[in-house]
Input
Amino acid sequence: AQSVAQPEDQVNVAEGNPLTVKCTYSVSGNPYLFWYVQYPNRGLQFLLKYITGDNLVKGSYGFEAEFNKSQTSFHLKKPSALVSDSALYFCAVRDRIRASGTYKYIFGTGTRLKVLA
Amino acid sequence: KAGVTQTPRYLIKTRGQQVTLSCSPISGHRSVSWYQQTPGQGLQFLFEYFSETQRNKGNFPGRFSGRQFSNSRSEMNVSTLELGDSALYLCASSSGQENTGELFFGEGSRLTVL
Output
């Protein structure tokens, strides 16, 4: 079955330090992978996606993610964390439903990022 | 371009009641999906509508239903509310075409069942 795992419930990092939020996936075929961010009492906002091409994907707010096919990972990174990056981050994979030819999205359980001043 | 609009933002109901939530997608988007977000379960997929037809459905009981209108606006209904239905209900829209992919979320409707 297709799945997405975010192994860390929470990640703490000092402001100015690099951050990594981990995501691994299990999906047949070529994956479409996404990262979203959720600020308190808000909906999810799209950060970046990987469909094909360069394994390093750049997104909004200085975030980037590295697709690693051999490790089935899609970790979110930022070279220098800001306090304002503190939020809930979700990894997601788009899964093709063979019977209908349509798609559904599977989300990880989320990782709370806390950037300390 | 206006974003995804969900109403109401907050509501309180009691067990046994029913609730209807509304979602207006981004103009031109034909796909509307609904998700339930709870602290312990993350985002759980409820259903997706495309051009007024339910295209996909998650693993929720029949008390959860939805529909989509010709203008792509969507509603979801939960009948016979239970305490466990307390959650943030998120609506997301997309063009529905294969070559895009990202979802655009509303701010959610926070339902509290007492």
Observations:
- Chain A touches chain B through 24 residues (CB under 8 Å).
- The CA atoms of residues 2 and 28 of chain A lie 7 Å apart.
